[in-house]
Design a protein that fits this description.
mainly alpha
Length: 198
């Protein structure tokens, strides 16, 4: 998973080197506000459909909690997300400062992935149902299968199929989490009510 992040950072570095002019100043990527007011079309990356590579899709579907908090690699990050707080709105021109902020978002994303999987592994929602009764097992197997498929040329797009199953397993995990919390809260409330009545 981390290899996909490193490959994307290398592409970003190549893009910034290609944009630098001989004077060392960066060329702007998008139309500036002054040009847009002079009759040129206003360009917004937020209206575009953003496509992710197969390795990025694997990271997103395998770690939806970390992705939602960080809004990792989104061109128009929500203001409350980590990317929205660290990187300005819209599509700023490429610079070394922006690249450093992107690396901070990547580091936070990796840390949140580790915390997410540690919590899921330490606190299984169905400890008495065996290995196949826990959604984390299905998510892990689908992630490994999708990762293996993403390295095979010409069939790398098939890695989306195991990741769709992993997304369904995440929905299953959220259902189990909600039902477990509700049942424990109900038991605690009824036991306290019974103790109070005596």
């Amino acid at each position: 998973m981390v290899a996909g992040i490193e490959a994307n950072e290398a592409n970003g570095l190549r893009l910034m080197h290609a944009q630098e002019s001989p004077s060392g100043r960066s060329k702007p990527l998008a139309v500036s506000a002054g040009e847009a007011s002079n009759g040129a079309p206003d360009f917004s990356p937020c209206g575009m459909i953003d496509t992710f590579s197969p390795s990025e899709n694997i990271l997103i579907f395998a770690n939806p909690g970390a992705f939602l908090v960080t809004d990792w690699r989104s061109p128009c990050a929500r203001r409350w997300s980590v990317s929205g707080m660290l990187i300005s709105d819209g599509w700023p021109k490429a610079s070394w400062a922006l690249f450093a902020k992107g690396q901070r978002v990547d580091a936070i994303f990796i840390a949140l992935m580790a915390i997410q999987w540690l919590l899921i592994g330490v606190f299984p929602l169905r400890p008495h149902c065996g290995l196949w009764g826990d959604p984390a097992t299905h998510i892990t197997i689908c992630t490994v299968a999708a990762g293996a498929l993403s390295f095979i040329p010409n069939i790398e797009s098939f890695c989306n199929f195991p990741m769709l199953y992993a997304a369904a397993a995440w929905v299953w995990w959220l259902y189990l989490l909600g039902s477990t919390l509700l049942s424990r809260t109900w038991r605690l409330a009824t036991s306290r009510f019974a103790a109070h009545q005596q």
